[in-house]
Amino acid sequence: MEDLMQEEHMEEEDDVPVEEPSLNGNDGDIPLNINDPRNWDNLNAKWRDLLVKNGLVRDMLIGKSLKDGLKRRFSSEFYSKYLPNREMHHRDWLVYSKDLDKVFCFCCKLFKNKPLPSQLAHDELRDWGHLAFSLKTHERSPEHVNNMFIWVDLRSRLESNQVIDKVLQHQISKETKHWRKVLRRLFAIVKYLPKQSLAFRGNNERIYEESNGNFMALVEMIDEWDSTLKEHIRRKQNHEIQYHYLSHKVQNELIKTVASEIKVILDCTPDVSKQKQMTLILRCADVSTVPIKVHEYFVEFLVVNDTTGQGLFEELQNVLHHLDLDIDNVRGQAYDNRSNMKGKHKGVQRKLLDINPRVFYTPCGSHSLNLTLSNVAKCCDKADLFSEVVQRIYTLFANSTKRLKILTDNISEKGFTLKSLSTT
């Protein structure tokens, strides 16, 4: 008899409904459909975690939703968008309710801690004509981004095998790679123009306009076949980006980065108009290659009137300032063996060392070799006599156009030319 009573008692216990977490935390409430957005405002922590872990249940309708007064309706195509690089990205936060015929943001609806201005977070949205613009504005808002991070963080903690949202991380990685590729191409242009002794800028800085300079011209040329710069120019023209890195200020920053350490080479000589001209050459090392390559770039001719050490040094200071080059980045200097250049008290090398003690001075190797060969030739009687005969031949024929033509007709076929001896 007791056994029968125990069995009846067990049957009565089986009929008792199992308690489940309620929507608002009260044990007596019956759980409703958690996939219905109308119930998300009052979900407790347990049901919210379950919803986040299981994921959204969305109506993947294509042209089957209800039409509004203008015969417009929601389409599942809004669940995706195209990034600036034409890659498709899914809006996994967007949800459409067929019963309400409205759309809303899942993470903002679930994790908002204060009223938000966007309708997607509280009242839902049904303006199909302006839905694309509303979605674009909403997903860029700080509130949405913050709620997205909360959602991702909660989901990563609920799923032990996933620590970060792969879609967002993939977007960030793609954008980072894009900008790195853009900068590589701009650095290549910055290194190319000085090698060819070409100016950077023109009369304007606008792309695809006349007289915009060599820098912009090379950008336009690369844009014709390179997909990275083509995408970059498209973003700039469509005003999708604010910083495009094509202005003259950025060009100067790139130049400073490439030429962080330079060596100055100066030499003076009079031209045919008897004006003293100083040649300025900059030497820099390319440490990005293996082995390291050293490049020399001719900058310009400078007309100098004061040939003293102080006068030449001031001219050097002015041109470095004009080129926006920091004199503290100079690591070497090379001049000829004249006292106004190499003088250890008042020479240019001394003036520069007083400002920057790291500017190591080296006598010009070519000039030193030329002086050595000249002195060696003067020490040899036969070499000195040979040079004197060659100079007399030049003087004989150069002073008469008729004699010069006779000589040219006889030696031009053999590839010879007659020149005066160099005074140095």
Given helix and strand content, the structural type is alpha/beta
Strand order of the largest sheet: 7-6-5-8-9
Instruction: Summarize model confidence as the mean pLDDT.
Output: 76
Q: Biggest sheet: strands, sense, closure?
A: 5 strands, mixed
**How do the SSEs run, as a string of H and E?**
HHEEEEHHHHHHHEEEHEHHEHHH
Number of strands: 9
Instruction: Specify Rg, calculated over alpha carbons.
Output: 40 Å
Number of helices: 15
Low-pLDDT residue spans: 1-31
CA(first)-CA(last) distance: 133 Å
Envelope shape: elongated
| Helix residue percentage | 40-55%
β-strand amount: 5-15%
Q: What are the key terms here?
A:
disordered N terminus; five-stranded mixed sheet; elongated; 424 residues; 15 helices; 9 strands
Describe the structure.
The termini are far apart. It is elongated and about 110 Å long. The chain has 424 residues and is an alpha/beta fold. Helix content is 44%, strand content 12%. α6 crosses α7, α6 (166-195) packs across α9 (248-258) and α10 packs across α12. Strands 7-6-5-8-9 form a 5-stranded mixed β-sheet, with no helix packed on it. Strands 1-2 form a two-stranded antiparallel sheet.
Could you give a short description of this structure?
This protein has 424 residues and is α/β, with parallel strands linked by helices. It has helices at residues 2-14, 45-54, 106-111, 131-139, 142-158, 166-195, 213-223, 227-237, 248-258, 309-322, 339-342, 348-355, 365-379, 381-398, 401-411; strands at 80-82, 88-90, 94-97, 102-105, 262-270, 276-286, 293-303, 330-334, 360-361.
